[in-house]
Amino acid sequence: MLVVLAGSWYAFDKFSEPSCGSAGKLSIGAPADLAPALKAQAGEWAERAKADDICAEIDVFEADPADIAAAVAAKSEKALTGVGQANGRTRIPDIWVPDSSLWLQRLKVANPQSVPAGTRSIARSPVLLAMPEPIATTFGWPQTKIGYVDLIKKVSADQKVKVGIVDPSRDSTSLGGLLALAAAAQEAGGGNAAQATQTATAALRALASGRSPLKADLLRKFPRGSDATALSGGLTVAPLSEQAIIQYNAQQPPVRLAAIYADPAPPGLDYPFVVLNADRSAVATELLKSLDTQSFRDKLGAIGLRGADGAPGKGFQIPANAPGAIAASQLPDAATVEGLLQKWQAITLPARMLAVIDVSGSMLEKVPTAGNVTRMQVTLEAARKGMSLFDDSWALGVWTFSTQLDGAKDYRQLVPIGPLVSQRTQCLQALQSIQPKPNGDTALYDTILAGYKAVQSGWDGGRINSLIVMTDGENDDPAGGLSLEQLIAELRKTADPARPVQVILIGIGNKVGEAQMRQITDAIGGGTFVAPDPAKIGDIFLQAISLRGQVTQPK
């Protein structure tokens, strides 16, 4: 009887234990710099939670925030500037802890419903300037406070200053640093818009020349010796998180990095806790309470991160001149972030482009929202500003089009496609010389086909080959010319998958044939962008240029 009773009790006790099943499983995707502390804390919490009859099987895995952001955006059939597609092995977790709320902001711009509101941070790490200590002393460190305006002036004027950065489209630390540098460029311009633009462009180009695809690659560029040759050959400065500098110096490198808390402080890493699967919100809420404890703060401190309130935990190796606690940083508005990333893409993506500009009579119409200058004037100004972002590695050509512009041809070549290093002045002069044809119509379809063939004939496998056409009207050719169906058929016949050419159509004003333009770019690959208010053509032009590596593929 005793044996039977004991066996029965064992069976009852064994099989009455809660079984998590799918309802108790919780997946958490976190960046590599946070995952170890989060995994340890989640494991401890899950064990304690059993006493409260909370059954949770937690899987914390390392995930690049850019990959998860790309996967979340793809669910809404959207793409984030410069991010591209997610890694094929990327899985969207129940809980996502990206390194920065900038990711949530960018996703909400793509689709306001893509991520929930009201997220809480679980850790922090400010974005700093990292400099080899021997170089930092020449800037006055640690006695002198170094600001971003001082740095931007130095970068713009001294080519010996080597600036490094990880691609800010995919790296939150670098995006924060880039935002601070861009704001400093405006301040360094002293209220002069042209000077500010010139300073910002020079800084962006300097950053672009020193960019790295990954943080590990960037860190390897810092000098490995304190002699003059090694210092001059390595990186001078780069934006890094406080944690990255702490971990770098912990490896006892030949040259330590100075952690410079420059003003104004850029948006820092704040590690928001984001519930992507509402069905797991109850368990997620209980886990989140555990992440607001001294135990978790100490785990963060051991790996160089601060607590959610900016205060360090036990084991935190405080850098020289570091504040005891840091305040939450203010996020810039979404338009500022998107505009800066578009400029970055315009500068860094190598390109071979033919720009074709409408000079039909309607381009003489006034634009009330732009001080009553003509559509032609705002379009040419947008082209000039865009061209200032292109470095000498670009190849560019300039055409105009209307009807019977060059004998029987509806288009005219002003500058053939060629490297800007040798024909930048020629392109600028061509833009300055453009005048509308008062009685000219809009032979759009014939021009698109001719431009496409011109880009394809000199196709360069090392660049993005694209045709960009700016027009303010629908196709209107009194001499006949191609119909929409004939144009699409000819483009498909001409297209070569081994030599892709992206067609980017920009509509100016509210009288363009947007539906027809989209049929063309959907069929052949590219994108259609429309500025109903011609005064906004500059923004649309920049958006089109920056997304030329991410526009649609042929259908």
Write the layout of secondary structure elements.
Layout: H1 2-15, E1 25-30, H2 35-49, E2 57-62, H3 65-75, E3 95-96, H4 102-110, E4 120-121, E5 127-132, H5 133-138, H6 148-157, E6 165-166, H7 172-188, H8 193-209, E7 211-212, H9 215-219, H10 228-233, E8 238-241, H11 242-250, E9 257-260, E10 272-275, H12 281-290, H13 294-302, H14 334-348, E11 351-358, E12 366-367, E13 373-374, H15 375-389, E14 395-406, E15 409-419, H16 420-433, H17 444-457, E16 464-471, H18 484-494, E17 502-508, H19 514-524, E18 526-531, H20 537-546
Parallel strand pairs: 1-2, 1-3, 6-7, 11-14, 11-16, 16-17, 17-18
Antiparallel strand pairs: 3-10, 4-10, 5-8, 5-9, 12-13, 14-15
Helix pairs in contact: 2-13, 3-4, 6-7, 6-8, 7-8, 7-14, 14-20, 15-20, 17-18, 18-19
